[in-house]
Amino acid sequence: MTATLHTPTATSVSAGSPISAKLPSWAIAATRVVVSFLFILHGLVGLWGAFGGVDGQGGTIDPLSWPGGWASLIHLVAGALVMVGLFTRTAALLCSGAMAYAYFTVHQPIALFPIPNGGEPAALYAWIFLLIGVLGPGAFAIDALRRRR
Question: Are 35 and 129 in contact (CB under 8 A)?
Fold first, then answer.
C-alpha cells in the first residue's frame, strides 16, 4: 500500500495567476512607502523639532548646517520623493548614501558593530534604500505614470 502526501497550499492563488505576479511589486511599493514615511519623520525631528526635537526640548538643526541640517533636508525631500515614487531610484540612492555616511562618520567610530554603537537604524535605512534604488519603486509610483506617457 502506498500513501500519497497531499500538502494544502496556504493560498488559493495559483503560482501563475496575475495576482501572484503583481505581489512582489506591491510588496516593494508597501516597503517603499512605510520606510520613507519613517525616514521623513526623522527629518521633521531635525528641522521642525517634532516629537521633542533633537534635544528632547523641541530643538532644531539649522537646515544649511553640515552634516545635520543637510541630512534632515535629505530625510524630508528625498524621503518624500521616494514615498510618492518620483525619481525613486536617484532619491533612494541619495538616502542610502546619506545613511551610510551617517553610519561610518557618527556610529562606527564608537564601536565596530551596529548594536553597541547605536547605528542599527542608519545601517537598516542604508540597505533598504539601496534595495529600493536597485529594484525600483514597485507599484503605485509616479515614475510608472511618467513612463506610460
Answer: yes
Are the beta carbons of 22 and 30 closer than 8 angstroms? no
CA 15, chain centre distance (Å)? 28
Determine how many CB atoms are found less than 10 A away from the CB of residue 72. Answer: 24
Residues 142, 85 contacting (CB under 8 angstroms): yes
pTM metric for this prediction: 0.82
Distance CA 11, CA 126 (A): 33
pLDDT by residue (tens digit) across 45-85? Answer: 888 887 888 788 888 888 888 888 899 999 999 999 999 99
Interior angle at CA 74, CA 71 and CA 77, nearest 5: 150
Bin 96: left if φ > 0, else alpha if -120 < ψ < 50, else beta. Answer: alpha
How many CB atoms within 10 Å of residue 18?
7
Chain centre to alpha carbon of residue 3 = 48
